[in-house]
Amino acid sequence: MNGACAALHRIARRGTVHSCPFDAGALPVNGIYVLFEMGEQSHGGDRIVRVGTHTGVGQLRSRLQQHFVKENKDRSIFRKNIGRCLLNRESDPFLPEWEMDFTTRRAREKAGAAVNTERRRAVEADVTGYMRGAFRFVAFSVDDPAERLRLESRMISTVSACDECSPSSGWLGRHSPKVKIRDSGLWLVNELFKEPLTDVDLQLLAAAVV
Ligand SMILES: [Zn+2]
After folding, report:
1. For residue 2, how far is its CA from the centre of ligand 1 (angstroms)?
2. pTM, whole model, 2 decimals?
């Protein structure tokens, strides 16, 4: 398992590393991304802390914008998780409100006057600030939707099962209320510890990294 994970890291580091603000036009339209985070190391270099993809056709760029640009935690569970950690680290009493989902009008109406919009925007800005400063990413071009999901799952499983990929003592995710994030050292809760990458998968990824 560690061998496949080391190979995945080697392949990912061969790609163009993007940081924020990023040029969306330089990214593939369909694909998978891996994130590196400041201070997180493994296999002799930057550690993969998240793997992600998109479902709709041609949505890779907009998916990354939902994480890094658009300040709405309810459209990005990743943003929500970063906010949870920033708030939890400071024992901030705003955390329960941050947990609420305001995607639907009904939810917004239900929460009504209890919603502190100004505070929520401030936390969104803190999340963006952290994300833009801490994360860099590499993309893999994969057009087939089923193949994207299959490879994404196997990449996550491979990294989650690797003994050499563990979080640093100062990793922000250690403040997560989510045990899966704290334990895995990854900004992920799904697809952990399932089927790992095969040699053939690694060859596909080596050809797909951009
Ligand atoms: Zn590893």
Report:
1. 5
2. 0.94
pLDDT in tens, 80-120: 999 999 999 999 999 999 998 877 777 777 776 667 889 99
CA distances from 29 to 71, 90, 148 (A): 22, 38, 12
Q: How far is the CA of 195 from the centre of ligand 1 (A)?
A: 15
Between the CA of residue 130 and those of 126, 158, 171, 185, what are the distances in Å?
6, 26, 12, 17
What distance in angstroms lies between residue 202's CA and the mean position of ligand 1's atoms? 14
> How many distinct structural domains can be found in the chain?
1
Domain extent, residue 168, equals: 2-208
Q: Under 8 Å CB-to-CB from 56, ≥6 apart: which residues?
A: none
CA nearest neighbour of 119 among 87, 75, 78, 82: 87
CA of residue 184 to ligand 1 center, whole Å: 11
**Separation of CA 155 and ligand 1 centre (Å):** 10
